[in-house]
Amino acid sequence: MSLLLSPVQIAKLALKNRVVMPPMCMYEVHKEDGVATPFHFAHYGARAIGQVGLIIIEATAVAPDGRLTNQDLGLWNEEQAQKLKELVATLHFLGAKVGIQLGHGGRKAKDAVQPIASSAIPFNETYKRPHEMTKEMIKQTQQDFIDATKRAIAAGVDMIEIHGAHGYLLNEFLAPQTNQRKDEYGGTLENRYRFVREIIQEIRQFYQGSLWIRLSLSDYSEPQNSLEEWQTLAQWLEADGIDCIDVSTGGLLDRTPNMPIHAGYQVPFATQIKEAVSIPVTAVGLLDNPGLCEFLLQTNQTDLVAIGRGLIRNTNWLADAAKELKERDFQVYNHSYFRGQQ
Ligand SMILES: Cc1cc2nc3c(=O)[nH]c(=O)nc-3n(C[C@H](O)[C@H](O)[C@H](O)COP(=O)(O)O)c2cc1C
């Protein structure tokens, strides 16, 4: 049996295979109320039928002005929580484990009335200048994360991923180019981590389930956190109770990285984090080739693989992967789907 398609225990989470659907915003909330629609049931349901081991629901905002656009999902009220509960139950019925990514867009919250950020530096000239967060705003936003986490738990999710990547609010605190604060939330690495740390530590007061974080390991621009600093940060995250680090890159700056983008280009970052901690990591980025995924798992470069655009293109990605890996034991959804493979 391939590692890719065989079961695995990731911290507290038993998964039927090592394929993760990473969070991908769909901008499908046309009523702009943050509530999941029939689209989300069909979209995630199709991937659950496709046997994805862990589906991480797209970046879901913890506050109205934390949305990237007004078409994003939200989790700041009970109506949103109730629909999420129905969505999670549906995906469980279809056999998937379900997580949710909780986030705040910070200075990249394009539709926000007044975006907030670690420092008052706009993303580019088309974005509004964010308000540098006061201590009260910091406490309120941390509380928004806590409240959304409680709603996600009540909705029955199997894991929660804190969005610390791609230049959104938490990433803005972690990164030296976007955090120019002079108080205890800026300056040293430890200070820049404080906003994130306080959220994680508070969540760990009441939640013992699976808690992940997504990080952007490179800003493709100097100054940035060094590899050693990211490894130190990963060790702090582990000590503070994070169960898995989902390793991505980029998104902090409005610049296209001057580097070749090729299959697996982000994997070395995941491996370098894996080497520094004892918790598992997830790698992502152009990993559509099942043979490549299997090689990365067999050589211990990552513990899980996330397939984003590959799963948008092909809900049947896992069955196709099984064929390519000559995996006879792979179970499709039911006998009728099995007949569809013949
Ligand atoms: C349409 C789309 C929406 C995305 N939305 C999110 C998101 O909500 N949160 C996030 O962390 N990453 C998001 N991403 C990044 C993906 O999770 C993933 O890291 C990226 O697509 C690279 O993986 P891939 O090459 O397998 O697609 C998005 C990507 C796409 C294509």
Structure description:
- With 342 residues, the chain is of the alpha/beta class.
- The chain has a single domain (8-341), classed as TIM Barrel (Alpha-Beta Barrel).
- Helix content is 36%, strand content 16%.
- The protein has helices at 38-49, 78-93, 135-154, 169-174, 189-206, 227-239, 267-276, 290-298, 309-313, 317-324, 335-341, and strands spanning 8-10, 13-15, 19-21, 54-61, 73-74, 97-103, 116-117, 131-132, 159-164, 210-216, 244-248, 281-284, 304-306.
- The strands form 3 sheets. The chain has an 8-stranded parallel barrel, surrounded by 4 helices. Strands 1-2 form a two-stranded antiparallel sheet. A two-stranded parallel ribbon has the order 7-8.
- α8 (290-298) links the parallel β12 (281-284) and β13.
- The longest helix is centred in the middle third of the chain and has 20 residues, at 135-154.
Tell me how many strands there are: 13
- Please give the alpha-carbon distance between the first and last residues: 20 Å
- CATH superfamily, by name, is Aldolase class I
Which of globular, elongated, flat, extended, rod-shaped describes the shape?
globular
Outline the biggest β-sheet.
Answer: 8 strands, parallel, barrel
What is the CATH-assigned architecture?
Alpha-Beta Barrel
CATH class: Alpha Beta
Helix count equals 11
The count of domains is 1
Helix content: 25-40%
Cofactor: FMN
Protein name: NADPH dehydrogenase
Organism: Enterococcus alcedinis
InterPro entries: Aldolase_TIM, OxRdtase_FMN_N, YqjM-like
